[in-house]
Amino acid sequence: MIDFSIEHTLGPLDDRIAQTTKPRHLALLRNYREHLLAEIAADTDAIMKTQCRDPHYHFYGAGKGDTGPKGHAQVRGFYDQIFEDGYNKLRYVIDRFIIDDSALFFEGQMDIVFPGLALKAMGVAVDDERALYVYSYRQAAIFHYDAQGACTGEDTYSDGALTKDRIRKLT
């Protein structure tokens, strides 16, 4: 069984925060932590408070080029859709974490729980739209920050598209 507790995802980040002494790095790590908490809590307003006025996201890995939202309205809409469809239950297993004054980089496994109905709406065939499914994949992500410590965007790279072959039904 996959541990989707918030402690599992936040534990390594909290350890990193505890070990960090550089104020700029602490500010970025805390911004990222607020972002994660807001995403798990399905709070679009709180996520947008961690962003600059005009964030740009870049998503790669589905074989379609960059599919990320651009600008405040699209990024807000992206999160609103995730929360409306109910697939904000996630966890990271981070293998590598790097920070500098302008960005965070991490890579590892990402697990996301999707309601069958949401997958069906995305065009992914499921045998039970009332069931929950988990999509596990390898991800590398870069979160970029401005001089004030607000996130200016995310660049994420995954090892492939969300397909029926890459999900498994939760019992």
DSSP summary, beta strand count: 6
What is the string of helix and strand elements? HHHEHEEHEEE
Taken from the alpha-carbon principal axes, the silhouette is globular
Estimated radius of gyration? 16 Å
Work out the helicity level. 25-40%
- Main beta sheet: strand number and arrangement? 6 strands, mixed
Strand content: 25-35%
Tally of helical runs: 5
Amino- and carboxy-terminal Cα gap: 9 Å
Low-confidence sequence ranges: none
Secondary-structure-based class equals: alpha+beta
Query: Could you tell me the mean pLDDT?
Result: 94
Describe this protein's structure:
A hairpin with a 5-residue loop joins strand 4 (132-145) and strand 5. Helices cover 35% and strands 30% of the residues. The N and C termini lie close together (9 Å). The mean pLDDT is 94. With 171 residues, it is α+β, with helices and mostly antiparallel strands. Strands 1, 2, 3, 4, 5 and 6 form a six-stranded mixed beta sheet that branches. Helix 1 (6-19) packs antiparallel against helix 2.
Summarize the structure.
Helix content is 35%, strand content 30%. It has 171 residues and is α+β, with helices and mostly antiparallel strands.
